[in-house]
């Protein structure tokens, strides 16, 4: 068994993201259309695993592998999965959920680097989920409580993620309504 540890919010997470994004931008240059801080560490006052989630957006599917090759050449490790889970109510076409996942070089700040194609459902999901939680602190607090209870189950990371995915989807579905109502865009 593993111990998923949900840390207290750390006010330095945004600065840690900035430093890491600067390094990633230097490695990728024009390949990265945008680099975004996503996941729980990107939401103020939200407890999280002390791992930065960063999304690199590219313009086309072949560029997913171009990014992976550049990052692997810089000692990042390519990992599964090669796709995200499909979300109820969103497109079911596999192409919408393709990604590449890399983790930081050994002995560096923990990072999960998600590489996704611009305009695909999974690229939008990460950004809308983040922005919705930033705008809805009560929802973020409820999500934090769930994550702390889930971590207490001492699941393997894959099982923890599988348990968390439908809860994230339950948050995401009203986030889509919020996006339509407020004019939110990627």
From TrEMBL:
The keyword Transferase is assigned to this record: yes
Signal peptide bounds: none
Molecular functions per Gene Ontology: transferase activity
Tagged with keyword Electron transport: no
SUPFAM superfamilies (UniProt xref): Nucleotidyltransferase (SSF81301)
Pfam families, A to Z: GrpB
Keywords, ordered alphabetically: Transferase
InterPro entries on file: GrpB/CoaE, NT_sf
The protein's name in its UniProt record: GrpB-like predicted nucleotidyltransferase (UPF0157 family)
Taxonomic source organism: Kribbella kalugense
């Amino acid at each position: 068994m593993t111990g998923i540890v949900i840390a207290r919010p750390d006010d330095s997470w945004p600065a840690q993201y900035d430093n890491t994004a600067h390094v990633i931008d230097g490695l990728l240059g024009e390949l990265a259309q945008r680099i975004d801080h996503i996941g729980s560490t990107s939401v103020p006052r939200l407890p999280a695993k002390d791992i930065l989630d960063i999304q690199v957006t590219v313009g086309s599917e072949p560029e997913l592998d171009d990014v992976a090759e550049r990052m692997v050449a810089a000692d990042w490790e390519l990992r599964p999965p090669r796709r995200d889970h499909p979300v109820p109510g969103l497109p079911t076409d596999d192409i919408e959920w393709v990604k590449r996942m890399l983790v930081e070089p050994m002995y560096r700040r923990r990072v999960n680097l998600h590489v996704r194609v611009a305009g695909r459902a999974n690229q939008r999901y990460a950004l809308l989920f983040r922005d919705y939680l930033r705008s809805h602190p009560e929802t973020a607090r409820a999500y934090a409580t769930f994550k702390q209870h889930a971590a207490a189950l001492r699941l393997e990371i894959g099982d923890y993620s599988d348990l968390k995915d439908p809860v994230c989807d339950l948050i995401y579905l009203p986030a889509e309504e919020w996006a339509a109502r407020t004019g939110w865009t990627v």
